[in-house]
Amino acid sequence: MEQQSKDSMLVHQAKAVLDFNWTGEYTQPGPRLYPHQWSWDSGLIAIGYSHYDQDRATQELRHLFDSQWKNGLLPQIVFNSRFTAYFPGPNFWHAKESPDAPRDRETSGVVQPPVHATAVLSIYRHADDEAGAKEFLEYAFPKLEAWHEYLYRERDPQGEDLVYIRHPWESGMDNSPMWDLIMHRLHLRADQIPVYHRVDTHTGLASDRPTSTTYDRFAYLVKLFRDRNYDETRIREVCPFLVQDVLFNSLLSKAGEDLAEIARVIGEDPSPHEELAKKTKSAINRKLWDEDRGIYLDYDFADDGPIRMYFGPNLAGPLYANIPDQDRAKRMLDTLENDGFGLSDENITPIPSYDVHAFGFSPVRYWIGPVWINIDWFLMHGLKSYGYENHAKRIRETIIDLCWNEGFREYFNPFDGSGLGSIFFSWSAALVLDILLGETTKTGG
User: Fold this and answer.
1) Which of 268, 300, 376, 410 is catalytic?
2) Are 342 and 350 in contact (CB under 8 A)?
3) CB within 8 A of 55, min separation 6: which ones?
4) Which pLDDT score, from 0 to 100, does residue 205 have?
5) Contact (CB, 8 A) for 107 and 91
6) Which residue intervals of 286-388 are DSSP H helices?
């Protein structure tokens, strides 16, 4: 089949996936397993919509922004009351114990990576209705400003310009090996683990999902938050999981630059957002860079030390956000090519989420090795921005081939490319649309 015909068919299929998952208010990340609205999923999904359906892209983010907490927290999940067979649901989170939680929406009490300003700007740049897009920017700007202010105010107690996450779910990479040492420190008695009933192992293969002992610790942390009414100061005093995450902070720096651009378009002062983005970029380079390995490392804020795990998103995020200088970018490319991430190995489908030579690597278990389209998408754009066109092209081709051969799956086996997790996964479809429908950017004004 000719490439142009193949691409056209894949665009049609990707749009069909998003249509299938559209609820009328937001897009489910995937049928059955993910019926509610997830924060960073919606941001990435809106980027895909921005190329062909401006109205739906704005609806997607409006529904999320209208669920924002009074203190600026943008919740990881906005629950849909039509879907009750999901864990952890509203009755487990008790989010309304916080005076800041919305009264008219049910949400979780944690966050996810801040891709939202980037998504909002994408809607404006690709808009057919520029006046409508500018009106949306004016609506979204104070929401985004409050979201970023929350992160720097509540999650950066030492004023380092790096924010921490307080639950693995906030990274978007739930069972990443980066959290293993912290999880091992949690010696929990049976009475410390709240009662819960998992649903994900009934709608997907248990062998592909986080283990039960991992979920015990996920649940324990949620109980710790709700017992303290989601008061950040009280949580910080006792929480064993406080991590300055590379991907989260990289995306925050990128989002800060994009928020500054939004401010510029609507006549607001961009300088505070530009300055914060620069400071976060500098802090990532100063504190999180590991010269020996040529990669950025997460920092265990609770235990005051780097987390020496070598993880694909810690390469992808900084390159996407233009964090390293050209010399460090070259070091990171060397790591990608030579240290277990497969960019120069034809037998490995780029880019696995975890070093394939590392202890505990699994090609099928969630974030312990499989390929995720969003991470490869970040990496593709990052490598291209540093002039590594051939590497970016190879990753682009791999993303297309994975979805063509296996459908828009949640994640993929890095060795044979087989699809894993949810079928009809929305951000896989949306990011393929971003690739295939191009980067025709409007300057705005």
Assistant:
1) 410
2) yes
3) none
4) 59
5) no
6) 313-320, 326-338, 373-385
Q: What angle do CA 89, 55, 437 make, to 5 degrees?
A: 100
* 419-420 and 411-412 beta bridge pairing: antiparallel
CB 259 within 8 A of CB 117: yes
Alpha helices, DSSP H only, in 321-425? 326-338, 373-385, 389-406
Q: Which of 174, 180, 290, 406 is catalytic?
A: 174
Q: What is the pLDDT of residue 207?
A: 59
Show the tokens assigned to 173. Answer: 């990479």
Q: Specify whether the CB–CB gap between 333 and 391 falls below 8 A.
A: yes
Which tops the pLDDT comparison, 352 or 270? 270
Q: Are 293 and 351 in contact (CB under 8 A)?
A: no
Indicate the residue type of 249. N
* Mean pLDDT to the nearest integer, 312-317: 94
**Cβ contact 224:194 at 8 Å:** no
Q: Report the distance separating Cα 280 and Cα 40, nearest Å.
A: 20
Radius of gyration of the chain (CA): 20
Annotated catalytic residue 410: yes
Per-residue tokens: 105 = 């929406």
- Interval 74-115: pLDDT, tens: 999 999 999 877 878 899 999 999 999 999 999 999 999 999
Nearest to 241 by CA among 182, 200, 284, 189: 182
* Residue 77 phi, psi dihedral angles, 5° rounding: -130, 135
Q: According to the model, what pLDDT value does residue 441 have?
A: 43
> Between helices 426-437 and 3-21, what is the axis angle to 10°?
140
User: Could you tell me whether strands 295-296 and 289-290 are parallel, antiparallel, or unpaired per DSSP bridges?
Assistant: antiparallel
Residue 85 CB contacts under 8 Å (≥ 6 apart), including other chains = 199
Assess whether the previous peptide bond of 77 is cis (omega < 30° from 0). no
pLDDT at 74 (0 to 100): 98
Two tokens, residue 63: 């529904």
